[in-house]
Amino acid sequence: SRQKPTPSGFQTNEYADAQLQEIVKKMRERATVYKEKLKDPVLSSPEGSPTASPSKKKPPPPPKEEKKEEKKEDAEAKPEEDHYCDMLCCKFKKPPLKKYMQYLKLPDSIDSYTDRRYVAWLMLVTVAYNWNCWFIPLRFVFPYQTPSNTIYWFTIDIICDICYLCDLLVFQPRVQFLKGGDIISDKVEMKKFYHSSMKFRLDVISVLPFEVLYFFFGVNPAFRANRMLKHNTFFEFNDRLEAILDKAYIYRVIRTTGYLLFILHINACVYYWASDYEGLGSTRWVYDGKGNMYLRCYYWAVRTLITIGGLPEPQTLFEIVFQLLNFFLGVFVFSSLIGQMRDVIGAATAGQNYYRSCMDNTVSYMNTYSIPKLVQNRVRTWYEYTWDSQGMLDESELLEQMPTKMQLAIAIDVNFAIVNKVDLFKGCDTQMIYDMLLRLKSIVYLPGDFVCKKGEIGREMYIIKQGEVQVLGGPDGTKVLVTLRAGAVFGEISLLAAGGGNRRTANVVAHGFANLFILDKKTLNEILVHYPDSEKLLMKKAKVLLKEKGKPAPGPPVQQPRGLAGLFTQKQETPKLFKAMLGGRGKDGLAKLLQLKRQQDIQQRKQKQRKSNEKSKQTKILKESKDKIDFTKTLRASDLLISSEKKPEEKKSVEPAATSAPPPAQKEEPNADAKAKPPAVMQRGTSKESLIISMSPSPRAGEGEILKVEVKEKKNT
Predict the structure, then answer these.
(1) Where is the composition biased (Basic and acidic residues) (predicted)?
(2) Distance between CA atoms of 444 and 464, rounded to whole angstroms?
């Protein structure tokens, strides 16, 4: 094969040509990407990170530092690969010890409100504190601590003391504090603040080793009574635990019950001490020393503090005074604990009571105005479902108490994932979406409720938070066109549609219980005032969505006829207008159409003829009326001239002629509808004068002609 000759003076390089084509291709792709980015600004930049040029040499790395860093990275990466543990027939990955150490490593400063490790440590110190509070009085009064088991009591006491010391020296000096609204996390400042507080003084007193007195006075648990001064840590643990619990009222009830049991425990210990002071079994009132000493004394304390009665009467003065003080203290303590328990339970059920009160008031209102039972049942169902699903009737009431930033943070966590799925808002300003999240309203629809109806004006957009809705259509409006589930959006076009294009095209009904977010048009317009770029983008997207939704749905594919039938085109369907006019098929329908056409032409000709007849009649009547008026005027003028020029002696001869003349006709306006009257006729008579009437043009332009009437006497022959 011969190569095509190239034109003289023009040489092509195949490699350069291929490179140029590749560059052109990449430039076109880049232009396409930038066009898409202009339509949707949320897209990230299409430019990749710059790569090093092959012609340039890399700078030589520092020899020692980078090698050390690479070795460290390799050493950190190896344990993750090798930490596997074989146990029986299973092999599982075991996290390295360094991760545990990093998690357990104590930070330089501790946030007492959010650090869960600090709460766990407070719980450990609280357990040690409760050990001392419960068992120091028990060991001091009851003979439970003996030389044979003293070593066990001492071991647990030492463990509790270690917890106290660690809290004093390690944890409390690292706790952050507020100063003038600022969070102080400096080590020196935190330590100085703790050392200057009353809590530090009590903590120091609570760890003083008064146990050295054992060597002088013997083993007596009363020397450890200072351990009960660490009560601040106990109450701090209660506050921190309630802040992180979902149902804190349960812990409050347990804590209040613990207070009651502890008071009864102290009363039982005091009763055993009083019985020992009086002598066990010396009287009927004291403990007789039989049975389990602690349970018998605790039973007596319960009956005394709760004032049940049925106890033996005190005998001695000491017993009487002790019993009176016990009764007074029991009434006060028991009533206080009952009131506190009532407050705890009341606070726990405050929401339930509010819900019940609202529902009762609504039912009372409906009964007052005789609302139908069907409507009342639906209202009750709405109350019950809303309370069961949300735990409250209106979520906005709870969020209104918080600052705007906290409301926004909660709204982002709850609703941002749902709103972000809406195609209409993709590419809009993120801050605009945040403002919109704060305006969303949550509404619950019952099964069968109409969310929106066909033909009504659309002013809201709906986002399905939970449940399902059905879009109904068809001739009777009962056919289910589509079912929308959680996360779906509908009605978004109504927010931006204008010029009558925001009417609902179908009925939307809640299939079951449906919880929907609603954003109305007025709220969106108030937001878009501050975001003009987002408003323009939304308008563009709304037009695109309107065009896409306005396209007809693609029908089934048309099958092409086979054989010779494929050579002829398919006959087009007769338009519906012609079908309605024809009212039939074939020749009958065409005959009807022609007959209708002829009738229409006949009617048009009749109307034209009628109009022309009426017009000629009106013209004729107007002409006759004009002639009549002109003739009447002429007669009047002649009568006036004759009467003015007659001589006095000729009055008698003229009078019969004048009397025989008819009176002048009255002016009549021409009326097209009235019949034309016959013109007035002048009666004839004999006279010696002759009447000459002539018309001459006027000397002035524009005045027409002048009528002249002359009366001359006839000559006697």
Answers:
(1) 63-78, 611-633, 644-654, 666-676, 702-717
(2) 10
